[in-house]
Design brief:
The complex is a heterodimer of chains A (826) and B (321). Chain A folds into four domains: 140 residues, Calcium-transporting ATPase, cytoplasmic transduction domain A (Distorted Sandwich); 80 residues, no CATH class; 206 residues, HAD superfamily/HAD-like (Rossmann fold), CATH 3.40.50; 224 residues, Calcium-transporting ATPase, cytoplasmic domain N (3-Layer(aba) Sandwich). Chain A is 40% helix and 23% strand. A nine-stranded mixed beta sheet of chain A has the order 14-33-32-31-15-27-30-29-28, with helices on both faces. In chain A, strands 17-16-26-25-24-23-22-21-20 form a nine-stranded antiparallel beta sheet, sandwiched between helices. A six-stranded antiparallel beta sheet of chain A has the order 3-2-4-13-5-11. In chain A, a hairpin with a 2-residue loop joins β20 and β21. The termini of chain A are far apart. Chain B is built from nine helices and nine strands. Chain B is extended. The two termini of chain B are 60 Å apart. In chain B, α2 runs antiparallel to α9. The longest helix of chain B has 28 residues. Chain B is an alpha+beta fold. The chains are: A alpha+beta (826), B alpha+beta (321). Chains A and B meet through α9 of A and α1 and α4 of B.
Amino acid sequence: MKRYIYINDDETSQDLYCANRLSNRKYTLMNFLPKNLWEQFSRFMNQYFLLIACLQLWSLITPVNPASTWGPLIFIFAVSATKEAWDDYNRYLSDKKANEKEVWVVKQGIKKLIQSQDIRVGNIVWLRENDEVPCDLVLIGTSDPQGVCYVETAALDGETDLKTRLIPAACMGMDFELLHKIKGVIECPGPDKDIRRFDGNLRLLPPFIDNDVCPLTIKNTILQSCYLRNTEWACGVAVYTGNETKLGMTRGIPEPKLTAVDAMIDKLTGAIFVFQIVVVIVLGTAGNVWKDTEARKQWYVLYPQEFPWYELLVIPLRFELLCSIMIPISIKVSLDLVKSLYAKFIDWDYEMIDPETDTPSHATNTAISEDLAQVEYILTDKTGTLTENRMIFRRCCIGGIFYGNETGDALKDVGLLNAITSGSPDVIRFLTVMAVCNTVIPAKSKAGAILYKAQSQDEEALVHAAAQLHMVLVNKNASILEIKFNGSVLQYEILETLEFTSDRKRMSVVVKDCHSGNISLLSKGADEAILPYAHAGQQTRTFVEAVEQYSQLGLRTLCLAWREVEEDEYQEWSLMFKEASSTLIDREWRIAEVCQRLEHDLKVLGVTAIEDRLQDGVPETIETLRKAGINFWMLTGDKQNTAIQIALSCNFISPEPKGQLLSIDGKTEDEVCRSLERVLLTMRITTSEPKDVAFVVDGWALEIALKHYRKAFTELAILSRTAICCRVTPSQKAQLVELLKSCDYRTLAIGDGGNDVRMIQKADIGVGISGREGLQAARAADYSIGKFRFLKRLILVHGRYSYNRTAFLSQYSFYKSLLICFIQIL
Amino acid sequence: MPGSDSTAHKSKSRRPKYSQFSQQELPAFKLILTPGYVISTFIVVGLIFVPIGLISLFASETVVEIVDRYDNECIPKDFRDNRVEFIKNKQTNKSCTRTFTVPKQMKSPIFIYYQLENFYQNHRRYVKSRSDKQLQSKKNAAHIRECKPMGETDNKDPIIPCGLIAWSLFNDTYGFSVKGKDLKVNKRDIAWGSDKNYKFGADVFPKNFQVGDVGGKSLNSSIPLSEQEDLIVWMRTAALSTFRKLYGKIEDDLQANDVITVVIENNYNTYDFKGTKSLVLSTTSWIGGKNDFLGVTFITIGGICLFLAITFILLYVIKPR
């Protein structure tokens, strides 16, 4: 469903879409009671208790005072209802605060201060520095002459770095007055919850110069709940308002997770219910028989000779009422109560506070603590989870020469420093790519030092390294980029940025040297995304070797490459790129295809190696948890060699004589099938031996295995205690979790980045590391911890305590109920 | 979520306050069952329980008790095959004489009980059929809702005392004589004081009682309920189907080998439901009536404990782990 938004048109767009009125409330004053009761009664247990309570009102059959059931029932309902009401009231208050906030909006060509809830789709909203964005806007103007503004998106995705947002080309250079009168149409898809995508088009109406269709991406929008930073003012057109904003759409109620104990309790309840029915039938019949044969002889009881038919029901129903307390009415409430206490214990734990940032651990999901003790498989991410995600540039290989091999630090390698001073063109080019080909934003601090704001840790490391090697990225103003090299200032104009996606595995920029006017393409990316596209004459063997060598040391490698682009070629390609960027359907795929057309015949410059240290206590943690019988799988997007190296260094797998590593690879179905069968065979043989056998699989083979040989792979998954999956995409991670869950294993997924979110949400328990890659994973997770090593305490202490306590409480509840019930029956 | 800058400022407040509870470090104690602990506990328990048991048993032995079941014997030979008819027939002579010898000297007071078996005073329909309000005060005379099916007469007049319990009041009587001399039976102060003073009103007089369908004993309508002690005793319902209820007290000592003659008015119908009736004479000691159960239990538990203690000691000596 497409939207056509008429900018600044007070008549047409008024009532087409909802106003910017936030409402997260579940209830209103009027419907609270019926709605809440309805919700509570949709649970089977509550229906059962209501039935019992109603039966008790029939005084002929009730053996006890009806208050004994009605009292607890009403109390429990009141507790749940009060909690709901309190939550809802708080939501109402925060909604009200947001709705009544005052913002500047253009109405009839004049800027007016109105309440946030009166913003309509199509209105132009003005924001000043540090304002919160009231609804999803398409930028049309900023105070910056280049049309850039900075936003902090922490509330949206948890990432704390500033992001640049651009005004669309059509609005570029419009002055302050004009922005009040601007008219146009924005074409965009209906509201959705993807905060990384916005595929729209903008067409300004005739009085304005440019009436071409101008593509809009997520880069041109500022979304609700972001903050405007480092920009004096900005204005934009409201496109999604109220509950239809991206944030509003994301806000869903997550599906409640059920723990093993909960499932057990449900089963037990069912069993007890059946037992109860049996007791009722047996004793009820016996009672009726006794009454008919014996009780009539007891003259002092004075039974009437004739009775209505329902008298037959009286004794069974009486027994039913007596037995009704076999099912403890309070178990849900008491379990909820103690579970929230377990969660508090996790929040309070001094031993799980990250010493660096002083962040305590946090249990977002309070209901599943005891499942921690039931975990059988842990699926862990590598970068940022096992490692610190603090990237340091260590080595590089430029044009076949290795730097940093002796000292372990390329920045201090004399050879490299000499090469720079002597002005070796390859080295200079290499450093230029390091400094230019990225999305890092340099920002000057008050003291004059340059701070780099980067979304990717690798890029930050590269830019820092380049700066230390005298190639300093100084300034980035929209499209002009300034670099200081040995005292001279070089300027580049960035023509296009071909962004990084996990499918492409590389990013490129097209830049124009402002001095010479030459256009060139600078690329960096994973080896398999760069080396195959090297131009025909170049020998890439040394680079392959370099990559091999570095990854065996557990370093992360990136290949850098460049090529010159002719003016004509660029112009031609640029048109295609523009077209692709303004498509509404399959934009990502189209762009990737167009990018491919430019990224070929690359001259490979060299390979960088970045170190990512292991976090403290990782090997010990893994060791202990494995002793506790928990199986580990490592799922990473990194290269196989790096992954294996890390796995070795953190006790994940044992070195050769004790352990054995089997690899599943192959490019075609047959190859994968054969190697899968081979591995499976070895695995079956070695299960009896005391040997650590692990298998390694890469993303490609995994894809095939999951698609065609699911059964064999599942068997392998069951046999293997350890597995390393490298080069896997976020959705494959989630698939693996699904696979293990389908074998009835309790899984725990731990990760820190946005690419782990899906696996974290899929797993029985998701643990997020509130690390340097933002808080996305921590937000999606059930538990967030500061460091990987806290996992040990989380599982072995909190999990065990919670499980024991829950088990004790529920067993005691049942015991108590049964005991009371038997006393009553007898 | 605050950015990395603000975390540094807030670091103090983000750290939760320390307490032993929040860190789950509260002192805890768990007894480890070492042989020493176990053996000494068993010995102590055994040494305490066995003497208590012996004392209880001894006290119980000093009690002299005479039990005489008379429900069969008090049916004339002609009616042995037709007991129900005999008991229901108002014309038959229900008097019956029983004699028995006193085995040991019995010191006064000697308590007289009647004992019924297979009589369910705890039947739900029966036990609920009374009106405590009505029993308590004159003004609640019409309070008969709970008394069904024995709440009112056929003319819709309320029965006082109403209900099945009162209606089925035990109506056998006993007359005692030793060596041709009548023994005086004191029937006062056989009910609980609290019942007489509070639960049964001094201004409530029987009315419409045992009119029409007669169940058990009739009451003298000129005596208030608080002084109808047989009724008060009967209305304190028994929990089990075999029970004794106090009939009266003999305040003379009985010597060993005295022959007691009892003239029983055998009126109460236990034949319908195959119940039994017995007459019980018993003295008391500090432990109450004759009851070996307590003593036997104490001795058994104490004995088991001592036995286990000895076994453990032997095991510990012969085959320590």
